[in-house]
Amino acid sequence: MDKSTRKRKKATISASSDSTSPDDQDLEDISQEKNPASATITVTAVEVPELTEAEERDRLSLERKVERAFFEAGKALMELRDRRLYRSTHKTFEEYCRFRFAYTYRHVNYLIAGSVIVDNIKMGTNSSQNEKSHEMGTNSSQILPTSEVQVRPLAKLEPQQQPEAWQQAVEQAEGKVPSGRIVKDVVQQIMERTKVPNTYQIGEVCQILAKDNPELRGKGGCWGIVNHVGEFSCTIKIWDGEYTVGLQYLKSYNYLPAECEQMRVICDRINQVYSSGLEESVQKFLESLGKLNRAYLTGLEEKLLNVLESEYDEIQF
Predict the structure, then answer these.
(1) Whole-angstrom Cα distance, residue 221 to residue 291?
(2) What is the pTM assigned to this prediction?
(3) Where are the compositionally biased (Acidic residues) regions (predicted)?
């Protein structure tokens, strides 16, 4: 009984090992086919039509709109600010820009300053090439900036230097719109070439000349105390903090040492009270003291500052 069973099992196993399953048969068929890697694939070429004259005009027009975006934004923001067209809804231009465009005040100043620099470049380039084109964009005769970042380094130069610096950057970019890095390198080279020795001294009283520098907007006419002297700039302390300012944005009052020390004391007093966060009207008064063009306070100014210092002491204790 057991032997017959074992024989039947053995026969079954033998039969199944001799047979070929459908899957094995498929593999054999595939192995006999040509290698897929060497197969030829036929691709039908699609002809790309050339742009028509109308499409070429549309492309150029759209490209110029893209290129003018930051320039037009800066121009528009400048007009909104100068005409105070925000006054019906917001107290300050800064609040308006933050609410309406989600722009920081610094970004707005960069855009406005950038548009002014582009105008300087256009005027300088057109003057040198005797051209009267007012279109902004890249063409065979004039390469102009396409972003605010490209012109930001030029703010360190005088307006009459900006067109020359831009043209040098264009040449280094082989006739294309240069990157901000290239422009920055050119500006640095010009500054080193026209380097003026830094004659300012620590403790000296200087006035800030904001000009077209967006980082100094609102600080024009303010006086400050030099507390660090660098190669191309000075760090000065004014009524609301410290700022690093290029030499071209500073003017010494040429005060005597005793007057400089007196102004240093006044600056520290104003700065301390201002940082306490008192009412806006008080801050405006302190700002006005920060723009004095004399080395002393009047009797009334001294009394008012004493009152504010008393308020500051009460807040502290």
Answers:
(1) 6
(2) 0.53
(3) 21-30
